[in-house]
Amino acid sequence: MLEPSSFFLKNLGQDLSSVSKVLFNIKECLKITETIKTTLGPSSMDKFIQYEKDKTMITNDGATIMNLIKPKNEVSKILIEIAKSQDFEVGDGTTTVCLICGELLMLSKELLEEKIHPRDISKIFKKGALIASQIIKEVSIEPPFLDIKLLKKILMSCCATSLNSKLISGKRHIFSEIIVSTCLIMGKEFDPNMISVKSVLGGANNDSFFIKGICLKKPFSYAGYEKQTKKHYFPQILLLNIELEIKNEEKDGEAKLKSMKNYKKFIDAEWSIIYEKLDRISETKVKAVFSTQAIGDLATQYFAERSVICGGRISSDDITRISKGTGARFVSSIANVSKFVTGKCGILEEKPIGRERFIFILGCSNKSITIMLRGSSIKLLEETKRCLNDGIMVVRRVLKNQSVVAGAGAIEMKIASKLRKYMKAITGKNQIILKKFAQALEIIPKTICENGGLDSITILSNLRSIHESSDCWEGINVEKGTIFNAFDNFIWEPVLIKINAIQAATEAACLILSIDSCFSFINEKE
User: Fold this and answer.
1) Which residues lie below 8 Å from residue 329, measured CB to CB, with a gap of 6+?
2) Which residues, listed in sequence order, are joined to residue 195 by a DSSP beta bridge?
3) CA distances (Å), origin 212, targets 169, 186, 216, 360, 384
4) How far apart are CA 164 and CA 173, in angstroms?
5) Where in the cell is it found (predicted)?
6) Beta-carbon neighbour count of residue 484 at 10 Å?
7) CATH 3.50.7.10 fits 213-366, yes or no
8) Cβ distance 93 to 86 under 8 Å?
9) Is the pTM of this model over 0.90?
10) For residue range 119-175, what is the model confidence (pLDDT) as tens digits?
11) Which helix (H) or strand (E) holds 485?
């Protein structure tokens, strides 16, 4: 154990006073929020990111951008953590949570310069977040979920709102249909692991579709596959963690042979081992064999002659889905291969999509979904996949919590309006702090306006006037540059996303305000 004297504290920041250090941390955090500010709203911009020497990405997904940012300031990493938390908890709203946190910090600068203590600011900010959460719950609406047609319309609206700020916003209704249909099929027993997304280069985005089943990309084609049966009804399926391939030794090996007869026996032994495995599998009468390890040319041809579809180097995630969907047990030893470990599906079919061939496993015993994405570039497909994940999480939260509020900046303006009415009962510096909290929430509609090229000052002024005079759901119509009723126009968002964003942003802002020094406790020898 090291002695205390062998350690020392290393200052990670500038040698500043307490308040100056807080202001410095705020400045560093605002650099990050400014980076992702333009990714909010229906007129958001994309970021071209080089995250490794030879790897690039185009995205406007807040969670993805925050994951790739490497700030030098240790305190600003708190913003990255809340973005990760928001993405993990609710799957959307990462840009929102960062912008609210950044605005709270920026407005705190003015309060700190007025000699208001950070603890007092944090106390009222937390109170404001609690009141905001209560307001959201009070004004939220629970639409009638018994009507399946109305339910689908509600879910489509929430999903389209989420996708409206994404790269695929022009095709949001197509993808909303795919996402909502997928989530409704999954039902209450929603398991994200049973939803697989496959990308196929070529075609257009609107050629994307989903199937009720599991889809695997065929590793390679074999000689004579054109003549093989491509479709089986109610086939038996075998899942392996066994290598079905003859290959060279990984390490240098030696064998001392006295004659050529012994050499022939040595070679024949290798072939007999692989054929024993293949014969054992063939005895089970299966029509499909999938393995996490390699299935070589010999085994592939052997199966082709017996009209058995096979696939090697299948990912563990896909193998797990097949196991759950067909009831097949995962076998790691050839000795355990028998008809009792096989599974069954309704239809097993091999067919091409674009230039690639896929194996479709349909009619599974559980709810398995595969979404097939089409696109003209790999980067577009990657970003579409990220967008789908956000949409799925949003729909999942609505199905689970069944409460929605209006988007387009309407809910933030409503909360700010009610907070201003509430703070009239408060006096002194607490009133000033709560006013700043209400003002911070308006960063969402303000940013939506700015990203859409609108006059944010005029529109926000009009929105404040409308919300002060009546209890409404007025928000921003970026396409027309006007104010409209966001709720009546089906711009809906799940309650959980808004509550979680405000609470997480407030907690992070309060934590940053409480830090006046940064030190590292390290070994002196290092």
Assistant:
1) 239, 323, 341, 343
2) 369
3) 25, 10, 13, 10, 20
4) 9
5) Cytoplasm
6) 17
7) yes
8) yes
9) no
10) 999 999 999 999 999 999 999 888 766 677 778 888 888 888 888 877 787 888 889
11) strand 482-485
